[in-house]
Every structure is written in C-alpha cells, then in structure tokens.
Design a protein that fits this description.
With 90 residues, the chain is α+β, with helices and mostly antiparallel strands. The chain contains three helices and four strands, in the order βαβαββα.
Length: 90
C-alpha cells in the first residue's frame, strides 16, 4: 500500500478520495496527477493504493485501474472526468 499523499496544511482536509492504481501504469500516473491537482485546489485529502499489494484489491480493481473512489463509493475508472469529479466533491 502506498503512503497517503501529503497536502499542504492550508489544503489539508479529511481523506475523501482513493485512487486504486498500479506501478508502471501511465493512465494511473495521469489520474493521480489530476486528482492531486483538483483535491489540492479544493482542500481534500486523497490517497493512492497499489492494487497489486493485495490479492483482493487486485481481483476487484486490477483490470480497471485507475479506479477513483469518493467517500468509499466508486466514482469512475480509467480517467478523471474533471467537471464530474469536481461536482462530486462539492
């Protein structure tokens, strides 16, 4: 499991977003960068979790990474739809 991403103290807030990802995944790196930018702007915490660190996560999400969760519910996968993502966090 990856360490939660740090946010600046003025942007710190409860972790609402989880990105299920894996090493070497270009789409995952792009999604993580977009989530970091948007969550930073909106003041929400987020974490990235490597699905290959756990067999259950790999079975659930492995063929769809990146998978974006908001407040424990699946929001989307493969890419971040910025307008929809922002609306869900509002």
């Amino acid at each position: 499991m990856r360490v939660p991403h740090e946010v600046a103290p003025q942007q710190a807030g409860p972790t609402r977003v989880t990105v299920y990802t894996r090493a070497g995944c270009t789409a995952c790196a792009t999604a993580e960068a977009e989530v970091a930018r948007i969550c930073g702007e909106l003041g929400h915490g987020w974490v990235a979790v490597d699905v290959d660190s756990d067999v259950d996560l790999q079975a659930e999400y492995g063929d769809r990474v990146p998978v974006i969760m908001i407040d424990g519910r699946e929001h989307g996968f493969w890419k971040v739809e910025e307008a929809r993502f922002r609306a869900a966090l509002a």
